[in-house]
Design brief:
Elements (H helix, E strand, L loop, with lengths): L19 E7 L3 E8 L15 E8 L2 E5 L4 E4 L4 E4 L5 E6 L5 E8 L2
Antiparallel strand pairs: 1-2, 2-8, 3-6, 3-8, 4-5, 4-7
């Protein structure tokens, strides 16, 4: 058996010109990824409309997710949000002073 031990808070990029999306585990129906943001937001008018549901949790930092025709959700450390498939949403804001580390799970709902 070949196991690989990692730490979600290590190996952070030193330069974050864009958000970083890193796949941790992936198979045909589930993908787990680490997302790293620092003052990033989705482009104005740029909405995610995904075929899979997405569960996100903030492990470090802060963010605001805007859901179309609903409201803004402020996420802090420990906050999580389940976003059903085809729910149009965008990242409105992430804290610029430090990295925001997200744990995201994409799955069939």
């Amino acid at each position: 058996m070949n196991l690989e031990l990692n730490n979600i808070f290590e190996l952070l990029p030193t330069k974050l010109d864009t958000e970083i999306f890193e796949s941790i585990v992936e198979n045909g129906s589930v993908k787990v990824e680490r997302i790293i943001s620092k003052g990033h937001a989705s482009p104005a008018g740029g909405w995610y409309d995904q075929d899979q549901a997405e569960w996100v949790m903030i492990l470090q930092g802060e963010a605001i997710i805007c859901v179309e025709d609903d409201r803004d959700y402020r996420l802090v450390v420990g906050s999580y949000l389940n976003i059903p498939a085809h729910t149009r949403h965008r990242v409105k804001w992430t804290i610029p002073e430090t990295e925001t580390i997200w744990l995201a799970v994409h799955y069939q709902d």
